[in-house]
Every structure is written in structure tokens, then in C-alpha cells.
Amino acid sequence: xxxxxxxxxxxxxxxxxxxxxxxxxxxxxxxxxxxxxxxxxxxxxxxxxxxxxxxxxxxxxxxxxxxxxxxxxxxxxxxxxxxxxxxxxxxxxxxxxxxxxxxxxxxxxxxxxxxxxxxxxxxxxxxxxxxxxxxxxxxxxxxxxxxxxxxxxxxx
Length: 156
Known about the structure:
CATH class: Mainly Beta
Structural class: mainly beta
CATH architecture: Sandwich
Number of strands: 8
Oligomer: single chain
CATH topology: Immunoglobulin-like
Radius of gyration: 22 Å
Distance between the termini: 70 Å
Number of domains: 1
Strand order of the largest sheet: 1-2-6-4
């Protein structure tokens, strides 16, 4: 009898672990479609030796679900990996209401620093930008993480 009870406990624990592993993250509302865009950056400039930094501007285009009103509250933006441009980490609060079924926008200025390969010329890798956006809605708050590779020179 004891053996059967222990076995039943093990099966119950195993079943709970499987259920926990199979659960998915539930958003309080349908998450919006978000795209990172470069408004102004290195592709708009000619590279000149001796220039160590540049000013750029990146934006997030947010398309909300037509039935769920949301408000963008915060954006944290980073560059990922070792590429031509190293962006300084930036956090910025917002209070942008995203119109239902329309595209909302949020822009952030960035200071970028050039990195170089061993030959002294700039690398040709695209910049990988990652943004973590925090939203609020009447049904609760949630985060959305997006990432995009952005070519930095014409023809990329």
C-alpha cells in the first residue's frame, strides 16, 4: 500500500512538472506588432576616418490589435553583439497611447560609437538593435521584446 501511494505521488509530481513546462506566457491582451526602424543613422552619413561617434535616431512602430487599447510606458534599447556601431544602452519612459487598429510611434535618439577591425577600416556587419517595450492596458501590463538587423551602408 505504501509503495502504491509513493508511486501515485511521483506520478502526480511528474504530471505537474509536465503541465508547468507546457504552459505558455499569457498576455492580458493580444500583443501588438512592433517593428524597429532606423530614422537617421550611419547609412545617411559618409564614413570618414577619425570620426569616433555619430548621432542616430531609432523608432518603434507599434500596431495595436483593433479591440485592445494599449499605452506604451517604457522602452529599453540596446545593440546586440560586436558590430560596426556600438550603441549606448538607453531607457526612456513614454506615455504614448497606441490608437486602436492604427500605428503608434515612439522615437529615441542614440549615440553610436564606431568599432573597427584589425585593418583599421570599419566592419561591414549590420547593427542588431533590441528593444524591450513595456505596455499597459485596462486588462494588465506586459512586455514585448523585438530585435532587428539594420544594414549600415548603402547596398547592404
